[in-house]
Design a protein that fits this description.
97 residues, mainly alpha, 434 Repressor (Amino-terminal Domain), 48% helix, globular, Lambda_DNA-bd_dom_sf, DNA binding, HTH cro/C1-type domain-containing protein
Length: 97
């Protein structure tokens, strides 16, 4: 598996460490249980094998109450725009153009 390209200041470890401190937790295992995110996913984020996507940021926001903007700032993501990694679902029978 290849490493994920990163921005110069992008470090999701800062985000995970800040979440652990903010929630008063002691480990990644406790964080994974609190956020309901697989421990392996957190490990892959820490190792730089996957990035924290928009849908995960929304999930973390709902679990912690911290805004997406603040979560992005904590991990060093300074992009002006970002895309969600959730596919758009069109209900059956809906008209398409």
């Amino acid at each position: 598996m290849t490493e994920v390209a990163t921005f110069p200041n992008y470090d999701p470890n800062n985000l995970l460490n800040a979440l652990i401190a903010h929630l008063g937790l002691s480990s990644d295992g406790a964080l994974s249980r609190r956020l309901k995110i697989a421990r392996d996913v957190l490990g892959a984020i820490r190792a730089g094998r996957i990035q924290v996507g928009g849908s995960m940021l929304l999930w973390i926001q709902e679990a912690t109450g911290i805004s997406v903007e603040e979560l992005r700032r904590l991990m060093g993501d300074r992009r002006a725009r970002y895309r969600l990694s959730v596919p758009v679902l069109i209900p059956r029978g809906a008209a398409t153009n």
